[in-house]
Amino acid sequence: MIKAGIIGATGYAGAELVRLLLQHREAEIVWYGSRSYIEKPYADVYGNMFRLVDEKCMDDNMEALADQVDVIFTATPQGLCASLVNEEILSKVKIVDLSADFRIKDVSVYEKWYGIEHKSPQFIEEAVYGLCELNRESVKGARLVANPGCYTTCSILTLYPLVKEGLIDPATIIIDAKSGTSGAGRGAKVNNLYCEVNENIKAYGVASHRHTPEIEEQLSYACGTDVVLSFTPHLVPMNRGILVTAYANLLPGVSEEQIRNAYETQYKGEPFIRLLAGKTPPETRWVEGSNYVDINYVVDPRTNRVVMMGALDNLIKGAAGQAVQNMNLLFGFEETEGLMQVPMFP
Question: CB neighbours (10 Å) of residue 75?
């Protein structure tokens, strides 16, 4: 049994971490960190935890926390983890950071897209990008895991096999992505009020969304050359879910059989990736509440393009579930431990 601490336990991703870890046979939560609710009972913040969690919320003192736990999850805004972590802490404890602080290897790119100074760039190089399906072996030996976010996880996993196998022209990639409102966090923002979101869909961060360089960087590793792509996210009036629809030109001579083989080869045996049959499009409702990613594609011979589609739950595989999956790898547990929830419907 390992001990876990969560900094940012009262955000949406932090609350999902609590829910998943309470069902984990090998982990115990001993620190519910929340700067906004210090000394307030956790179950008063989230009533679904009544009689399940008796502890009160604590602060974000990472140094004190490192002496009490085996793993720290930081489900916090960008910049906080980087401002708290140091060598002494990393010598004592594993850290799974759900923010973007250590996902991008070029600190100047991070600072440009996020608009903040990186407080601990000395740890960027050693941080492992925690997309388990791609970096499983590297995660196992890490001290610091950069847990990917929802848009990036869905986009990269949807495109990766065809980029890796060299079946599409990476210069032609266009990603259209849609997210439920929980992806924007629990903080009070006018744009996320019910009347602002309900009965509406809108694009945002057009040609400027900060997840763009992260997707480009990981796909560049896959194909061995710099990838520059178009990424446009949209906000839709639902609680959870990410749906990615990506487009790219097929390279000359590529067959549909090669495409299917690429997906099946790259994701053979992956417990959380479900390749759908035929031309069935992924739907967010069939992955809600689970750590699964549903993926499929359709070839358009008229335009010589392939349409690649993926769906996941932004709070689970797109955040907390992926973090637990990384924790399982770090400590040698079964990778699926605590994560085999059946998708919820309706």
Answer: 30
107-114 vs 212-223: helix crossing angle, rounded to 10: 150
Query: How would you classify residue 15: left for phi > 0, otherwise alpha for psi between -120 and 50, otherwise beta?
Result: alpha
Q: Where are the alpha helices (H) located in the chain, listed in sequence order?
A: 12-22, 42-45, 62-66, 80-84, 87-90, 107-114, 132-140, 150-164, 194-197, 212-223, 256-266, 321-330
Question: What is the average per-residue pLDDT within 211-235?
Answer: 97
Residue with tokens 């949406």: 12
Please say whether the dihedral angle defined by the alpha carbons of residues 27, 10, 231 and 306, taken in this order, is positive or negative: positive
Q: Which residues, listed in sequence order, are joined to residue 97 by a DSSP beta bridge?
A: 74, 146
Reduce the DSSP state of residue 310 to 3 states and report it. strand
- What b-and-e string marks burial along 280-297, b requiring 16 or more CB atoms within 10 Å of the CB? eebebebbbbbbbbbbbb
Rounded to an integer, what distance in angstroms lies between the CA atom of residue 2 and that of residue 181?
A: 33
Contacts of 150 (CB under 8 A, 6+ apart): 179, 183, 242, 312, 314, 315, 317, 318, 319
Q: What angle do CA 68, 74, 78 make, to 5 degrees?
A: 145
What pLDDT, on the 0 to 100 scale, is given for residue 191? 85
Catalytic residue among 150, 154, 195, 223: 150
| pLDDT tens column, 238-254 | 999 999 999 999 999 99
With cut-offs at 50, 70 and 90, classify the pLDDT of residue 192.
Answer: confident
CA 243, CA 241: separation in Å to the nearest integer?
7
DSSP string covering 171-200, please?
GG-EEEEEE-GGGG-SS--GGGSHHHHTT-
Number of H helices, E strands in the chain: 12, 13
Q: How many CA atoms lie within 13 A of 266 on its CB side?
A: 26
Closest CA to 178 of 276, 280, 311, 272: 311
Helix, coil or strand: residue 96: strand
The CA distance from 107 to 100, in Å, is 11
Per the annotation, the verdict on 223 as an active-site residue is no
- Which residues contact residue 115 at a Cβ distance below 8 angstroms, ignoring those fewer than 6 apart? none
